[in-house]
Amino acid sequence: MQPGRLVVLTGPSGVGKGSIMAHLRATRTLPCWLSISATTRPPRPGEVDGQHYFFVNEERFLQMIDRGELLEHAHFAGKRYGTPREPVEEHLRRGESVLLEIELAGARQVKIAMPEAFMVFLAPPSREELRRRLTGRGTETDEQVAARLAQADVEMAAESEFDAVIVNDDLERASTELVDLIVGRRPAGAGPAAHKRT
């Protein structure tokens, strides 16, 4: 049996990764298993433990690191995030494709651990649009928004490290492009990036 395809999706906070995942779940068009990350941050309204994230405390997360239970882990905006290793490897062994939605530091760790991973960067149409989206969420203070924008500048500078870039200026189109990349299709005439900003 051929192992499945591992696809890693990352992009700055507020770019719409969660919106795309929600859209693909709602339309039942996600052609792979979506890995569930562990995190020490508290749930946002509507998030369910074991469905959106595994919500754990700091002590448990550090245990997972020490025991080698995480494929990658990162510290971001004062909270920890990580991908449990065994479920990912099990689905790949079964021949299923797996999608990891993670931050840049984690994506780089996965690329080192699994060089065959296909790396996709989700970018905002502009920095101002990203600021608008972060502010519009209403879940963070002005200081937290400023910190996320500063981090976004660092992350957007890393676009060239990725196999494909999708600009999230339209949810439906961006979702379709991601599905095409997961199943190994590319938009006609596309080069290394699935969609480039104009």
Automatic annotation (TrEMBL):
Family according to the record: Belongs to the guanylate kinase family.
NCBIfam families: guanyl_kin
KW Oxidoreductase (keyword) present: no
Reactions accelerated catalytically: GMP + ATP = GDP + ADP
Major localisation: cytoplasm
Role: Essential for recycling GMP and indirectly, cGMP.
Cellular localization per UniProt: Cytoplasm
The name this protein goes by in its record: Guanylate kinase
Location of the Guanylate kinase-like domain: 4-183
GO molecular function: ATP binding; GMP kinase activity
A Pfam family of this chain: Guanylate_kin
Gene behind this protein: gmk
Binding site for ATP: G11, P12, S13, G14, V15, G16, K17, G18
Entry EC number(s): 2.7.4.8
